[in-house]
Give the backbone structure.
Amino acid sequence: DQQVKQNSPSLSVQEGRISILNCDYTNSMFDYFLWYKKYPAEGPTFLISISSIKDKNEDGRFTVFLNKSAKHLSLHIVPSQPGDSAVYFCAAHDTGSARQLTFGSGTQLTVLP
Amino acid sequence: DSGVTQTPKHLITATGQRVTLRCSPRSGDLSVYWYQQSLDQGLQFLIQYYNGEERAKGNILERFSAQQFPDLHSELNLSSLELGDSALYFCASSPQEREGTGELFFGEGSRLTVL
Protein backbone atom coordinates (compact mmCIF):
# COMPACT_ATOMS: atom_id res chain seq x y z
CA ASP A 1 0.00 0.00 0.00
CA GLN A 2 1.80 3.10 -1.28
CA GLN A 3 0.75 6.02 0.87
CA VAL A 4 2.92 8.48 -1.08
CA LYS A 5 3.02 8.19 -4.85
CA GLN A 6 5.11 9.87 -7.49
CA ASN A 7 3.63 8.69 -10.75
CA SER A 8 6.24 10.20 -13.05
CA PRO A 9 9.56 8.36 -12.85
CA SER A 10 11.25 10.96 -15.02
CA LEU A 11 10.89 14.52 -16.29
CA SER A 12 12.96 16.51 -18.78
CA VAL A 13 12.85 20.30 -18.90
CA GLN A 14 14.73 22.94 -20.81
CA GLU A 15 17.05 25.22 -18.84
CA GLY A 16 15.27 28.40 -17.76
CA ARG A 17 11.80 26.85 -17.94
CA ILE A 18 9.62 25.70 -15.06
CA SER A 19 9.90 22.19 -13.63
CA ILE A 20 6.79 20.80 -11.95
CA LEU A 21 7.08 17.62 -9.93
CA ASN A 22 3.94 16.02 -8.57
CA CYS A 23 3.10 13.83 -5.63
CA ASP A 24 -0.11 12.26 -4.31
CA TYR A 25 -0.80 10.85 -0.88
CA THR A 26 -3.56 8.85 0.76
CA ASN A 27 -3.07 9.24 4.51
CA SER A 28 -5.01 12.16 6.00
CA MET A 29 -2.88 12.00 9.16
CA PHE A 30 0.22 13.37 7.44
CA ASP A 31 1.05 16.78 8.91
CA TYR A 32 4.28 17.71 7.15
CA PHE A 33 5.23 17.26 3.54
CA LEU A 34 8.79 17.49 2.31
CA TRP A 35 10.86 17.33 -0.82
CA TYR A 36 14.31 15.82 -0.86
CA LYS A 37 16.84 15.97 -3.67
CA LYS A 38 19.31 13.20 -4.34
CA TYR A 39 22.41 13.24 -6.52
CA PRO A 40 24.12 9.97 -7.52
CA ALA A 41 26.38 8.48 -4.84
CA GLU A 42 25.04 10.92 -2.24
CA GLY A 43 22.36 10.74 0.40
CA PRO A 44 19.09 12.64 0.00
CA THR A 45 19.23 16.32 0.93
CA PHE A 46 16.29 18.20 2.41
CA LEU A 47 15.01 20.84 0.01
CA ILE A 48 11.76 22.36 1.22
CA SER A 49 8.77 21.47 3.35
CA ILE A 50 5.23 22.56 4.02
CA SER A 51 2.99 22.14 7.00
CA SER A 52 -0.47 20.71 6.44
CA ILE A 53 -1.98 23.98 7.69
CA LYS A 54 -0.50 25.90 4.75
CA ASP A 55 -1.08 25.69 1.02
CA LYS A 56 2.14 27.25 -0.24
CA ASN A 57 5.73 27.64 0.83
CA GLU A 58 8.39 29.41 -1.16
CA ASP A 59 12.17 29.36 -0.87
CA GLY A 60 14.04 31.09 -3.65
CA ARG A 61 13.49 29.22 -6.91
CA PHE A 62 11.56 26.44 -5.14
CA THR A 63 7.87 26.55 -4.27
CA VAL A 64 5.79 23.75 -2.84
CA PHE A 65 2.01 23.76 -3.19
CA LEU A 66 -0.32 21.64 -1.10
CA ASN A 67 -3.90 20.80 -2.07
CA LYS A 68 -5.32 18.93 0.90
CA SER A 69 -8.72 18.27 -0.61
CA ALA A 70 -7.07 16.52 -3.55
CA LYS A 71 -4.31 15.02 -1.36
CA HIS A 72 -1.80 16.37 -3.83
CA LEU A 73 1.37 18.39 -3.61
CA SER A 74 3.72 19.74 -6.20
CA LEU A 75 7.19 21.24 -6.36
CA HIS A 76 7.82 24.07 -8.77
CA ILE A 77 11.36 25.04 -9.75
CA VAL A 78 11.68 28.35 -11.59
CA PRO A 79 13.91 28.88 -13.45
CA SER A 80 15.30 25.37 -13.82
CA GLN A 81 19.07 25.03 -13.98
CA PRO A 82 21.25 22.10 -15.13
CA GLY A 83 22.46 21.70 -11.53
CA ASP A 84 18.90 20.87 -10.54
CA SER A 85 19.18 17.56 -12.39
CA ALA A 86 18.69 14.96 -9.67
CA VAL A 87 16.15 12.53 -8.26
CA TYR A 88 13.46 14.31 -6.26
CA PHE A 89 11.66 12.44 -3.51
CA CYS A 90 8.38 13.53 -2.05
CA ALA A 91 7.96 12.57 1.60
CA ALA A 92 5.23 12.86 4.19
CA HIS A 93 5.49 12.88 7.96
CA ASP A 94 3.01 11.80 10.59
CA THR A 95 3.99 13.31 13.92
CA GLY A 96 1.33 11.34 15.72
CA SER A 97 1.32 7.58 15.73
CA ALA A 98 3.81 6.78 13.00
CA ARG A 99 6.61 9.28 13.74
CA GLN A 100 8.23 8.34 10.46
CA LEU A 101 8.81 9.70 7.02
CA THR A 102 7.07 7.94 4.16
CA PHE A 103 8.79 8.46 0.83
CA GLY A 104 7.58 8.30 -2.73
CA SER A 105 9.59 6.37 -5.30
CA GLY A 106 11.19 9.50 -6.76
CA THR A 107 11.23 11.45 -10.01
CA GLN A 108 14.41 11.85 -12.04
CA LEU A 109 14.56 15.46 -13.21
CA THR A 110 16.85 16.26 -16.12
CA VAL A 111 17.37 19.91 -17.00
CA LEU A 112 18.70 20.26 -20.51
CA PRO A 113 21.10 23.12 -21.29
CA ASP B 1 28.79 16.97 3.58
CA SER B 2 25.74 16.33 5.80
CA GLY B 3 27.81 15.51 8.87
CA VAL B 4 26.35 12.00 9.06
CA THR B 5 28.99 9.34 8.58
CA GLN B 6 28.27 5.82 7.39
CA THR B 7 30.64 2.89 7.02
CA PRO B 8 31.31 0.88 5.01
CA LYS B 9 30.36 2.59 1.75
CA HIS B 10 30.27 -0.68 -0.14
CA LEU B 11 29.91 -4.25 1.06
CA ILE B 12 29.69 -7.49 -0.91
CA THR B 13 28.81 -10.68 0.86
CA ALA B 14 27.13 -14.04 0.34
CA THR B 15 23.70 -15.32 1.19
CA GLY B 16 23.35 -16.54 4.75
CA GLN B 17 26.02 -14.20 6.07
CA ARG B 18 25.75 -11.44 8.65
CA VAL B 19 26.91 -7.83 8.28
CA THR B 20 27.00 -4.73 10.46
CA LEU B 21 26.50 -1.22 9.13
CA ARG B 22 27.66 1.69 11.22
CA CYS B 23 26.43 5.26 11.48
CA SER B 24 27.59 8.35 13.37
CA PRO B 25 25.00 11.13 13.52
CA ARG B 26 25.74 14.83 13.22
CA SER B 27 27.31 16.35 16.27
CA GLY B 28 24.57 17.24 18.74
CA ASP B 29 21.82 15.17 17.09
CA LEU B 30 20.25 12.59 19.37
CA SER B 31 18.11 10.78 16.79
CA VAL B 32 19.27 8.17 14.32
CA TYR B 33 17.07 6.77 11.58
CA TRP B 34 17.72 3.83 9.27
CA TYR B 35 16.22 3.59 5.79
CA GLN B 36 16.49 0.98 3.06
CA GLN B 37 16.36 1.84 -0.63
CA SER B 38 16.00 -1.10 -2.98
CA LEU B 39 16.45 -0.72 -6.74
CA ASP B 40 14.19 1.98 -8.19
CA GLN B 41 12.23 2.20 -4.97
CA GLY B 42 11.67 4.96 -2.50
CA LEU B 43 13.28 4.90 0.89
CA GLN B 44 11.65 2.50 3.32
CA PHE B 45 11.80 3.40 7.00
CA LEU B 46 13.33 0.68 9.15
CA ILE B 47 13.84 2.01 12.65
CA GLN B 48 14.53 5.14 14.74
CA TYR B 49 16.53 5.58 17.92
CA TYR B 50 16.53 8.62 20.16
CA ASN B 51 19.24 9.02 22.76
CA GLY B 52 19.80 5.28 22.99
CA GLU B 53 16.17 4.22 23.07
CA GLU B 54 14.12 2.75 20.25
CA ARG B 55 11.47 5.32 19.34
CA ALA B 56 9.77 4.05 16.20
CA LYS B 57 9.79 0.91 14.15
CA GLY B 58 8.91 0.50 10.49
CA ASN B 59 9.04 -2.45 8.15
CA ILE B 60 12.16 -3.96 9.66
CA LEU B 61 12.59 -7.68 9.22
CA GLU B 62 13.16 -9.92 12.25
CA ARG B 63 16.53 -10.84 10.74
CA PHE B 64 17.55 -7.19 11.13
CA SER B 65 18.33 -5.46 14.40
CA ALA B 66 19.77 -2.15 15.44
CA GLN B 67 21.01 -0.32 18.47
CA GLN B 68 22.26 3.09 19.47
CA PHE B 69 25.21 3.31 21.79
CA PRO B 70 25.94 5.83 24.59
CA ASP B 71 28.17 7.84 22.26
CA LEU B 72 25.08 8.04 19.96
CA HIS B 73 26.52 6.08 17.07
CA SER B 74 24.27 3.36 15.75
CA GLU B 75 24.71 -0.04 14.18
CA LEU B 76 22.33 -1.94 11.93
CA ASN B 77 22.85 -5.68 11.97
CA LEU B 78 21.60 -7.74 9.05
CA SER B 79 21.70 -11.52 9.41
CA SER B 80 20.85 -14.61 7.35
CA LEU B 81 21.20 -12.40 4.32
CA GLU B 82 19.13 -13.06 1.23
CA LEU B 83 19.53 -11.81 -2.33
CA GLY B 84 16.61 -9.45 -1.79
CA ASP B 85 18.48 -7.65 0.98
CA SER B 86 20.76 -6.10 -1.61
CA ALA B 87 20.05 -2.38 -1.31
CA LEU B 88 21.32 1.01 -0.24
CA TYR B 89 21.03 1.49 3.49
CA PHE B 90 20.85 5.09 4.64
CA CYS B 91 21.30 6.49 8.08
CA ALA B 92 19.97 9.91 8.99
CA SER B 93 19.86 12.18 11.99
CA SER B 94 17.77 15.18 12.90
CA PRO B 95 18.46 18.26 15.00
CA GLN B 96 16.47 18.41 18.21
CA GLU B 97 14.81 21.66 17.24
CA ARG B 98 13.46 20.04 14.07
CA GLU B 99 12.24 16.82 15.68
CA GLY B 100 8.81 15.92 14.40
CA THR B 101 9.09 17.87 11.15
CA GLY B 102 10.66 15.16 9.01
CA GLU B 103 13.76 17.22 8.24
CA LEU B 104 16.61 14.75 8.23
CA PHE B 105 20.28 14.84 7.36
CA PHE B 106 21.27 11.71 5.48
CA GLY B 107 24.58 9.99 5.19
CA GLU B 108 25.91 8.84 1.83
CA GLY B 109 24.62 5.32 2.40
CA SER B 110 26.07 1.84 2.54
CA ARG B 111 25.58 -0.21 -0.59
CA LEU B 112 25.09 -3.86 0.27
CA THR B 113 25.33 -6.50 -2.42
CA VAL B 114 24.37 -10.07 -1.52
CA LEU B 115 25.57 -12.71 -3.99
